[in-house]
């Protein structure tokens, strides 16, 4: 069944999980964002090149300033902070692709020095909750480069199933990339959440 024409997501901020705070990004986050988004190793399998201070400032003044999802085609990017320290440890994004099909997508990027602490799983689980319970999406995907095994493991930990392997489907950063698509349905989310 298609989503309601009135469907929208207007979270109450900050959003707290067990150890993390998800919140809108602000210009005060620029240096922290540059600290990891400017690194070639962090961006290797992500759909952007290492970012400059100017690129980050532009995004903070543009699409990263969005605090709600009111229609398809929009994305909500949130900073992920360690609640105990207040430090920005990464950011996550929820894309709303289609109202008719109730489809969305998640993405995530963390500082390399915090990888392995379960932060990505915790933050991405909250994104799934926002997408399914908050917005009412039917299906959420995660698309990633096959070589990004940590991201594939994360998708599996989230309960997402591997649905597609698209061999050399994109000329990505100077070479052919094989894309993996993971997905989760609202009924699967609810069954898992109990």
From TrEMBL:
Please give the Gene3D superfamilies that the UniProt record associates with this protein: 3.40.630.30
Report the Pfam families cross-referenced here: Acetyltransf_3
Source species of the chain: Luedemannella helvata
Judging by the UniProt lineage, the source's domain of life is Bacteria
Domain N-acetyltransferase, chain residue ranges per copy: 20-181
Q: List, alphabetically, the InterPro entries matched.
A: Acyl_CoA_acyltransferase, GNAT_dom, Ribosomal_N-acetyltransferase
PROSITE patterns according to UniProt: GNAT (PS51186)
Organism taxonomic ancestry: Bacteria, Bacillati, Actinomycetota, Actinomycetes, Micromonosporales
> Know the name of this protein?
GNAT family protein
